[in-house]
Design a protein that fits this description.
Layout: H1 2-12, H2 15-38, H3 42-60, H4 66-97, H5 102-110, H6 112-115, H7 121-137, H8 146-152, H9 155-180, H10 199-222, H11 227-251, H12 255-290, H13 301-304, H14 306-320, H15 326-338, H16 348-358, H17 374-381, E1 392-393, E2 399-400
Antiparallel strand pairs: 1-2
């Protein structure tokens, strides 16, 4: 995806802007994203976040117009606040656990008595991290920076912001909460929240934020009159489809459902990265060729540039979830995770009734006559007239000895 965005930048970003610092910043963005995915230390995660964000700040205000400067300032302020919360949470976690290595912290929180750790503060520190990750992912109610930033940045950079940068927030949420905090046992103190895992505190919140993001993103995209506006609000809704299965996995009581939820989120994240990058890069080509991205001025584009229109059409169908495109498999996994009987609260009694009806607990069938022909089965069960009580005819006239013992 980074290679495709660089190639489109060479073709569709004017050379004067490329000669300044465009490509240097682009590679800093890639460096921050790669470091965030590969690190195994919480403090290094904060550092790589900042490397990624420093390049993003410049790209949002890259063109220097009033709207670009305003969008860049909003993006800067909100992410500085989020970074401060993340740094505070990382420091607090170090004070509680004594390490910032993710594997070591997970081991200590899984057995706090052996290390003399009180796991209760983990919930509050995890909440600070949760806010930061949700802000960087653009989940509702932290989505207000997304439309302005995507419209202001160069379109190849917007493809990276939507396809990669937002996924870093969701990936960090999965990595930290399911590996570091997943083994921590905390007594529930919030009414209506069941379970002793620290994940149980965040599961309903994340699920609600995912559903709200889907609704806000969908309704916001309806009233947009430019391609960038539609894609920006669509990104808000699509990240909600990633958050919903993560919330399901966090609330799951079985490992199978948790794995299914995480798999659904990762598959959908990969699909969205590919499809949204294709759409933003297609939008860059459309603007370069026509000089506008307003829908009212793009009539007849399919006839003048069928390959470009076809590429945009395929990306749109993938977002909708039409098989056999990647969006279908992502949404299918999200749906399967959402209708799991455990999530729907199936009781033990109803599960036993279902098992008795559809297989488990049902008495085995009588298979003694399975391999006989239908005519032979009838003859084997029908008494032969005139032969006395207890006599029955066997297959093809062979008589069986009845209960009287007489042949």
């Amino acid at each position: 995806m980074g290679v495709s965005a660089v190639a489109f930048s060479v073709l569709f970003v004017d050379r004067a802007n490329q000669r300044v610092f465009y490509h240097v910043l682009f590679h800093c963005l890639l460096l921050g994203v790669t470091g965030s995915f590969l690190t195994g230390d919480l403090f290094n995660l904060f550092v790589w976040f900042e490397v990624m964000l420093m390049a993003s700040y410049v790209f949002v205000a890259f063109y220097g117009g009033p709207q670009h400067t305003a969008a860049g300032f909003r993006y800067l302020v909100i992410n500085v606040v989020g970074s401060a919360l993340l740094l505070l949470a990382v420091g607090g976690l170090y004070a509680v656990v004594g390490t910032l290595n993710m594997a070591d912290a997970s081991r200590r929180l899984a057995d706090p008595a052996a290390y003399g750790i009180d796991p209760a503060p983990v919930v509050g520190l995890g909440a600070l991290m949760f806010v930061t990750f949700a802000l960087k992912a653009g989940l509702v109610p932290f989505q207000f920076w997304v439309p302005g930033a995507y419209r202001a940045a160069p379109l190849p950079v917007a493809a990276m912001l939507a396809g990669v940068t937002k996924k870093v927030g969701m990936y960090a949420m999965i990595r930290v909460y399911f590996t570091v905090f997943g083994g921590a046992t905390v007594e529930p103190t919030v009414p209506g929240i069941a379970g002793e895992s620290a994940l149980a505190f965040f599961a309903p919140i994340l699920f609600a934020m995912g559903v709200a993001s889907i609704i806000v993103g969908g309704y916001g995209a309806i009233g947009r009159d430019t391609i960038e506006g539609i894609l920006a609000y669509s990104s808000i809704g699509q990240v909600g489809f990633i958050a919903v299965p993560v919330g399901i996995a966090a609330a799951a009581q079985s490992q199978d459902l948790a794995r299914l939820g995480i798999a659904a989120a990762l598959v959908y994240a990969l699909h969205h990265a590919l499809a949204k990058a294709l759409l933003f890069l297609s939008a860059a080509a459309i603007r370069s060729g026509t000089g506008t991205n307003r829908l009212a001025n793009l009539g007849g584009l399919g006839g003048r540039a069928p390959i470009l229109a076809g590429s945009f059409f395929v990306g749109s169908l993938s977002l909708v979830g039409i098989p056999p495109l990647t969006g279908f498999f992502g949404k299918l996994l999200v749906f399967v995770a959402g209708v799991d009987p455990e999530l729907l609260g199936e009781s033990d009694a109803s599960r036993r009734r279902r098992d008795r009806r559809f297989g488990a607990g049902r008495r085995p069938r009588d298979t003694r006559h399975r391999h006989r022909r239908p005519r032979d089965r009838i003859r084997a069960r029908r008494p032969v007239r005139g032969h006395g009580r207890g006599r029955r005819a066997g297959p093809r006239g062979v008589r069986r000895v009845g209960p009287t013992g007489r042949g």
